[in-house]
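Workshop exercise sheet. Pairs work together: one partner reads the sequence aloud, the other fills in the structure field after running the prediction. Swap roles for the next sheet.
Pair: D.N. / O.F.
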Amino acid sequence: MIYTNSDGGSRGNPGPGAIGVLVRKDDNILETYGEKIGKVTNNVAEYKALIKALELAKKHTGDEVVCVLDSQLIVRQLLGEYRVQNPELIKLFLEVQKLQENFKKIKYVHVSRWNAFQQIVDSILNMELDGKN
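Structure field:
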């Protein structure tokens, strides 16, 4: 099974944003990715990070993927517990739904920002924002 950890953030809300992503098989990191994404809100950055995570996971499996995020809002929206009302988030939500078709099974898991793998992706996105990539 493949796991992804993703994190998106902005300095200011909205403000300069970046994403950090890693793809792993259990504890073995297969790939990492970071990118500046322009002026965005935190929630847009979180969705963009998840979209990149799903795109990268597709290179490693078409079977089962577990997407790990520290954004409780995004996870609850994807699980259908919360409605998506923001028009920009609706577009990103629908993009995630389309990417889900690449996998036999997908699971979304919320973890604390202090999770070890979340700390790595947070570090990646902050290096992008600091220009230290």
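Discussion prompt: The longest strand covers residues 28-40. What would you look at next?
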